[in-house]
Design a protein that fits this description.
Blueprint (H helix, E strand, L loop, with lengths): L3 E4 L3 H12 L6 E4 L15 H4 L4 H4 L4 H6 L2 E4 L4 E6 L5 E5 L4 E4 L1 E4 L3 E3 L12 E3 L3 H12 L5 E5 L3 H12 L3 E5 L12 H13 L3 E3 L4 E7 L9 E7 L4 E3 L2 E4 L3 E3 L2 H5 L8 E2 L12 E2 L4 E4 L9 E2 L4 H15 L11 E6 L2 E7 L6 E5 L7 E7 L2 E8 L2 H12 L3 E2 L1 H5 L5 H4 E2 L1 H4 L2
Parallel strand pairs: 1-2, 1-7, 2-3, 7-19, 9-16, 10-11, 10-16, 11-12, 18-20
Antiparallel strand pairs: 4-5, 5-6, 8-17, 13-14, 14-15, 20-21, 22-23, 23-26, 24-25, 25-26, 27-28
């Protein structure tokens, strides 16, 4: 039979199924997702969706006809709760709805869930998270409500800042509370952080760094099971920031429950090798749930968990190849993006371990780049509102090339023409 069960109807799960069919596999494929929605794109949720510019069909990854034509069975609205597996890799999965699914090959693309904040008051009406379509469906009308004048965003990462930009664009009074000393501090250099702090403040967003939150407060006494509505966020110093709506965006937690049940290695995610194989050598895994060897040739080595569409797609291709008995090593240049109102940030490479940066252009123009170097070699870049420069930098990294710091600093020099290819770099 050689049936393949893919648990997780997400970007990575759909990609595995697609690649297997493209490579000629004709055995049954069952793709199971616990959400009631067909597989969809997540990035638009914090952008066009909550603005009210997109409808559900606009973010759907594949049509029903696409699945039917490829004979991929899509199961939605049902969660796999247990998996029983034999030594040869075959097994049976049982869903919450009682369905039993026999399989010979197993892929876990279980993704991640929103990290919950252990604060008093998170159960008040008007407190939201934003990770999945149901979150967005709830948040969009709440943001559109004219009575929601004051919005507080807890978390100064990409989701928080994207939501803050949307709320500000809708005319709301917006405050961002970030526990760290700078915005997006885990991902970008101080120069990029400082730019985004200034840019959001110029647009009227209040930003509080090193914020220490005590609790979320609300009105309407919660009696007889009634749920009160949020009215503010209280800081440890007693300051109360008014809030009619609160968005909590403090990261995600990889979904590893099934992997743990199967006895697979889990450490910050489902541990996989460069061929996307879990510790049993049989199961494959891809996407936000995995902890993998750093796939970036210019990276610092070690293990890493990447949250991006690009990684989900590229790692899924490797996972599909392993399921088909054609394993290959995952090597790729990661890239990411974040749209925060009229500010488009594009990131190529991984800046971990950088030793110096070059700021190309003037951040005050809101069109510039920050290039990261280690041992004099380009390893990554943050590019704001300059797609052509992003493409040049990404091209250089994909080709294994570099751009000298001097050329990067000289805005009169075309980055495309300044790329030094590997033979010259190693000469």
């Amino acid at each position: 039979m050689n049936a393949t069960l893919i648990v997780g109807a997400c970007q990575a799960g759909v990609q595995i199924a697609s690649v297997m069919r493209d490579r000629g596999d004709t055995a049954p494929i069952i793709l199971v997702g616990e959400e009631a929605h067909r597989p969809y794109q997540r990035p638009p949720l914090s952008k066009g969706w909550i603005k009210g510019e997109l409808q559900p069909d606009d973010v759907i990854l594949r049509t029903r006809e696409w699945f039917a034509e490829r004979d991929i069975e899509l199961v939605t609205g049902d969660r796999v709760v247990t998996v029983h597996r034999a030594a040869d890799g075959s097994g049976t999965a049982v869903t919450e709805g009682g369905r039993r699914i026999a399989f010979d090959r197993l892929a876990l693309t279980t993704g991640a869930s929103a990290r919950r904040l252990p604060l008093e008051g998170t159960d008040y009406h008007g407190v939201h998270y934003l990770r999945d379509a149901d979150h967005a469906i709830s948040l969009q009308p709440a943001l559109a409500d004219a009575s929601a004048k004051n919005v507080v965003v807890i978390g100064g990462g990409f989701i928080g800042l994207e939501t803050a930009a949307v709320a500000r664009g809708l005319g709301k009074s917006v405050t961002v509370l970030e526990a760290a000393p700078r915005l997006v501090g885990r991902v970008v250099a101080e120069e990029t952080s400082a730019f985004y702090l200034g840019a959001h403040r110029r647009r009227g967003v209040q930003v509080v760094l090193d914020a220490r939150i005590s609790r979320i407060i609300g009105g309407d006494a919660r009696v007889a099971g009634a749920q009160g509505s949020v009215t503010g966020v209280e800081l440890e110093d007693g300051t109360v920031i008014p809030a009619d709506l609160v968005l909590i965006g403090v990261g995600v937690i990889p979904r590893t429950e099934l992997a743990e049940q199967l006895g697979l290695d889990v450490e910050g995610g489902i541990v996989v090798d460069a061929a996307a194989r879990a510790s049993d050598g049989l199961t494959v895994s891809a996407g936000d749930c995995t902890m993998m060897p750093n796939p970036y040739p210019l990276g610092m080595g070690g293990s890493i968990r990447l949250e991006s569409v690009n990684n989900a797609l590229e790692q899924a291709k490797i996972a599909a190849a392993s399921l088909l008995g054609e394993p290959a090593e995952y090597r790729s240049v990661p890239w990411f993006w974040s749209d925060q109102g009229d500010l488009k940030l594009q990131i190529a490479g991984l800046s971990t371990g950088y030793e110096s940066v070059v700021v190309r252009g003037d951040p005050d123009t809101e069109k510039f780049a920050v290039l990261y170097y280690r041992e004099g070699r380009l390893i990554a870049a943050d590019v704001v509102n300059h797609p052509a420069e992003f493409m040049a930098i990404k091209s250089a990294l994909i080709k294994g090339g570099t751009i000298s710091p001097a050329a990067a600093a000289d805005v009169s020099t075309s980055l495309k023409s300044a790329i030094v290819l590997p033979d010259a770099v190693n000469a």
